[in-house]
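Entry:
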Amino acid sequence: MEQRPDVDPLPPAAALSAGQAVLEGQSRRKGLSRLWPFLGPAFIASVAYMDPGNYATNLSGGARYGYMLLWVVMGSNLLAMLVQTLSAKLGIATQHNLAELCRRRFPRWLVWTMWVLMEIVAMATDLAEFLGAALGLYLLFGMPLWIAGLATGAATFAILVLERFGFRPLEAVITAMVGVIAFCYLIELGVAHPDWGQVAVGSFRPRFAGRDSVVLAAGILGATVMPHVIFLHSSLTQNRIVPRTAEQSRRLFHFEVFDVVLAMGVAGAINAAMMIMAAKAFHDRGLFDVDAIEKAYLTLQPLLGKAAGTLFALSLLASGLSSSVVGTMSGQVIMQGFLDRHIPVWLRRLVTMAPALIVIFLGLDATRTLIFSQVALSFGLPMAIIPLVLFTRRADVMGVLVNRRLTSALAWLAAALILALNGYLLYQLMAGG
C-alpha cells in the first residue's frame, strides 16, 4: 500500500460533508458559503507565486527598467492560472498527484532523473523563501541574519504543526499571510502614486532591452510559475473532496477553477504591485541600482516615509514564512510521489535550511542569490509542465475531465515559450552579450 504524504491529512468532517452535499445538489448554501468548502488549495499554491524570489526579481526589474517588464509579470500570471488549473484537475480526476502518476507510467530511470532534478528545484526554491523570511526579520528587528535564519526555521516548524489538525487551520494561516502581503502593497501603491498610463503600456507591450533584461524576464518567469507547486497542487486536490460520479467531477472542477482564478488573480496583482512600486519609487527618480532588498528597504523610508519601509519588510517576512511552509510541503509530495517514500517533515526542514544558512554565514549577496535561484527554477519548469500536459490530454487517465484540444494546445504553447525563453537566455549567457 502506498504511503500517503505528510501534507495530505484527512479533511475535517464538517468541510467534507458540506462539500459533498454541494456536489450532490443537497445543500441549501448560497453564494460564497456554497463555494467555501472548495476554496483553499489554490491559495496555498499561490503563496509560491509571491515568495521572496518575486521580491528580488520584481524589485530589480522595476528599478532598472521601470514598467517595461510588467508584460512578463502579466503573461506569467496567465500561464500560472492555466498550469495550476490543470494540476488541480489532475488530482480531482485521478486521485493521484503528478509525481505519483510519473512513477506509475514513466520508465524507472526517468523517474529517478526527474526526482533528482525536482529536489534541486525544491532546494533552490527553499533557498529563496528562507532567505526572504530571514531578511524580513533582519529589516524589522535588526537582529543578525544568522539569528534571523534560525528564527525562521523555528517559525516554519511551528506553522507546519498545524497540519496535525487538518487542512483548514493551515489554509487559514497561509491565507492570512497572503492578506498581509496584499494589504502592505495596497498601502504602498496608495503612497507612491504611479503613472498608470505607463503601467498600461508596460503591461501589454512586449519588449526587452539587452541580455540583462532577458535574464530578469527568465527570473520573473521562474519566480512566478513554480515547478514544485505544480506537483503540490495536484496533491492538495487528490483526496480533499472525492467526487462519486462524472457529473460531480465536472462540478468539483468548476469550483476549483474559481479557486484558482481568485487566488492567482490576487498573486498576480501583488506581483504587479511589487514592480510598479519599484518603478515609481526608484526608476522614476533615477535610482537604477537599487537591486538589493536591504537597499530598497532603506531607500523607501526617505522617499515614501518610514511606514513604507516597515510595510515592505513586514510583507517580505509574511511571504518568506508562508512560502517556506509551502516549499516544505512540496518537497514531501515530490519524494513521496516519485519514490513512494517520505522522511519526517522536521528532517526535510533541517536539510533544506542548510543552503540558505550557508549563504547567510558566508555573507553572500542575498538578493543576487535570490535572482539566480529563480533563473534555475525557470529551467525546471518543463520537467513539471510537460508531464502535466501529457497526462491531462489523455482520456484514459482523466476520464470526463480530459483536456479539450484548445486547452492542450495552449498548454503546449506555454511549454514551448518557456523552452524558447530559456534557450535564448542560455545562448546569451554563453555568448556573453
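Confidence is low (pLDDT under 50) at residues 1-10.
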